[in-house]
Amino acid sequence: MHQFSMSQLKPGAHIHMIGIGGISMSALAHMLLDFGYQISGSDSKASALTDSLSALGASIQIGQSAENIQNPDLVCYTAAISESNPELRKARTLNIPVIERAELLGALMELYKYPIAVAGTHGKTTTTSMLSLVLLAADTDPTILVGGELPQIGGNFRLGSKNYLPFEACEYVESFLHFKPFLSIITNVEEDHLDYFSDINHIISSFQKFARLTSPNGCIIVCSDDKNLQKVVQNVDKKIIFYGLDDKNTDFTAQNIKINQDGFPEFTIIKQGLPLVDISLRVAGEHNILNSLAVTAAADFLGLPISAVKEGLESFTGTKRRFEHIGTVNGCDIVDDYAHHPTEIKVTLHAAQQMHYNDIWVVFQPHTYSRTKSLLHEFAEALPIADHVIITDVYPARETYDGTIHACDLAALIPGSIYMNDMDAITRYLKQNLQKGDLIITMGAGDVNKIAQKLKETELQ
């Protein structure tokens, strides 16, 4: 894959960013401003993100038109921008270099000493966030890019020094093949994004290409419990560090695991057979033990003090939309969670089961028709871990409805589940049926979290 390099731009070059108000694009714009580049950009609407960039000197246009292209040295666009976009078409007409956001981020990594990529089908945001807190605890002043809002940094990014750069590496449309990590963490590999990937072998092949991008002086940290990951790294000529709970030959594992009265794991991290540190997490679930092991392995390779590992991991209380506590209604806890894949649903609901609630209610909004169709029976197996299941309409995201799958098809496979297509009606139904001591989880990567907020607001009235 051809790689753009920042060396192709003169110092202080003018970069125009189409879709600059997006959460990932705006963070990238902040980084570029910090390096002294002149930034302009456009978006369909003004927001706090565009306002903050304007305050730092970026030239922001609301609305997109060809006139916004004022002879920049480079144009960057998000994957959501179509080829018919007038600014993109104007740039191509003028033969201005044009690249996608992931490629520009990959080029920017050349300017950092230790870019640390966190990849995998699940767990990227949590693992990146945990690692970021460890790096902060170690006083490394990291620059951070995370896919969710992390309270300790007040959002999804932090500008720091040019040494450590922890970031999420998403496999969708193989955008992570633009990156140049010093160290890579791969949490797991499963079937997902089947609107792009043909099958699991295609996904494994893509992750294998990504693994080979890791610096020869760095390493790849992978979960030994994951059979697909073992296939990913078996022919990759890099230093591999394994972590896991099942494999006795792994480098980092956990022992003495117990769940405290709050439902959170407490355990001892073991490095190559010897106790390393005792950890008491403030987030639930066995998957977070695995995420902690991945972060510990990375910190150990980077030579960070074990005290920073303990402080960072134990200060992590979650990110926005990852088992996020929204409030209470009728004596019931309201939680919102981003889980939109059967494996994520299973681990989230199993974690909830350990938290001593009476009944667990889940309102699930499937995310994309392609994922719902390809993993329909896996969803039907995962969701009944909850005591009560409500299914609402598919959130289409980037897709259009083709008539081959509907949320009703999923509800029909789950005995006792209810299909409801109106969020206000779902909110009323829950208020009428929740009992004190229950847990309600709104679940999905779309806008199902509106129900959690409605429930909280009605309680306040």
Key structural traits:
single chain, 461 residues, alpha/beta, Rossmann fold, UDP-N-acetylmuramoyl-L-alanine:D-glutamate ligase, Protein-Tyrosine Phosphatase, Chain A, 3 domains, six-stranded mixed sheet, five-stranded parallel sheet, 15 helices, 21 strands, 23% strand
Structure description:
Helix content is 32%, strand content 23%. The protein has helices at residues 23-34, 48-55, 86-93, 101-108, 124-137, 200-211, 227-233, 286-301, 306-315, 342-353, 369-374, 376-382, 407-412, 423-433, 449-460; strands at residues 14-18, 38-43, 59-62, 74-77, 98-100, 114-119, 144-150, 155-158, 164-168, 183-186, 219-223, 240-243, 252-259, 265-271, 274-280, 324-329, 332-337, 360-364, 388-391, 418-419, 439-443. The strands form 5 sheets. Strands 16-17-21-18-19-20 form a 6-stranded mixed beta sheet, with helices on both faces. A 5-stranded parallel beta sheet has the order 3-2-1-4-5, sandwiched between helices. Strand 4, helix 3 and strand 5 form a beta-alpha-beta unit. Helix 5 crosses helix 9 (306-315). The protein starts with 13 loop residues before the first strand and ends with a helix. The mean pLDDT is 92. This is UDP-N-acetylmuramate--L-alanine ligase.
For the record, what is the CATH homologous superfamily label of the largest domain?
A: Mur-like, catalytic domain
Instruction: Give the tally of β-strands.
Output: 21
Structural class: alpha/beta
What oligomeric state do these chains adopt? single chain
